[in-house]
Design goal:
This protein is of the alpha/beta class. 34% of the residues lie in helices and 14% in strands. Strands 2-1-3-6-4-5 form a six-stranded mixed beta sheet. A hairpin with a 5-residue loop joins strand 1 and strand 2. The longest helix has 17 residues. The radius of gyration is 27 Å and the shape is elongated.
Length: 208
């Protein structure tokens, strides 16, 4: 598969051949959905947590004697029936939402999303991507000149601190290392921009 290559000025400077095994895979929406949902649940942080009867303060002394008062019997102020007592069946931080997906399924879903991006002209290959300084306005200038209009994910062949630092202040722009590419991040952004070197890293990482 041939695709155009652009420079940082947004001008077409040539073409590049994409590996068919990665960028020409038939789409299976159910598999992609399953992998994306698993990634979302695995990233979920359990924050809500209520204290049970054994965790709230107090309750060391019986509120009143068992018989003779005319009131209902109670053994502890920590009972869920009391204000300030424990919570029954409340959310707990011990909950586990993780879903296991095997590597082959993850890899297949990644190739499907990349193939869909290519077919819809949502992948932009650059001959190189470099900045003189880690300035947001410099990366913004490059993206403005590119054909990509909308949310953009920049896939880097390695950790490029200057580019990551410059792009993190731009709304609708994200960065990721090629070896960490995944269906969830790809589906969260409209366009995928990457230098030519990134394709080599993708092949070495996912075509084993």
């Amino acid at each position: 598969m041939k695709i155009s290559v652009y420079n940082q000025e947004g001008k077409e400077v040539g073409t590049i051949l994409l590996p068919k095994e990665i960028f020409d895979v038939k789409m299976n929406p159910d598999l992609v959905h399953q992998v994306v949902v698993s990634q979302m649940t695995n990233r979920r942080r359990v924050i809500a947590h209520t204290k049970g009867k054994g965790e709230v303060r107090g309750g060391g002394r019986k509120p009143w004697r068992q018989k003779g008062t005319g009131r209902a019997r109670h053994g502890s102020r920590r009972s869920p029936l009391w204000k300030g007592g424990g919570v029954t069946f409340g959310p707990r931080k011990e909950r586990v939402f993780n879903k296991k997906i095997n590597k082959k399924m993850k890899r297949k879903a990644l190739f499907m999303v990349l193939s869909a991006k290519v077919k819809n002209n949502l992948i932009l290959i650059l001959d190189k991507l470099s900045l003189e300084q880690p300035k947001t306005k410099l990366i913004a200038k490059i993206l403005k000149k590119s054909p990509a209009k909308g949310s953009i994910l920049i896939a880097l062949p390695k950790v490029e601190k200057d580019i990551i630092r410059a792009a993190r202040n731009l709304q609708g722009v994200g960065t990721v290392e090629a070896r960490n590419l995944n269906p969830f991040d790809l589906t969260s952004f409209k366009y995928l921009i990457m230098p030519k070197e990134t394709i080599k890293v993708i092949k070495e990482t996912f075509l084993k």
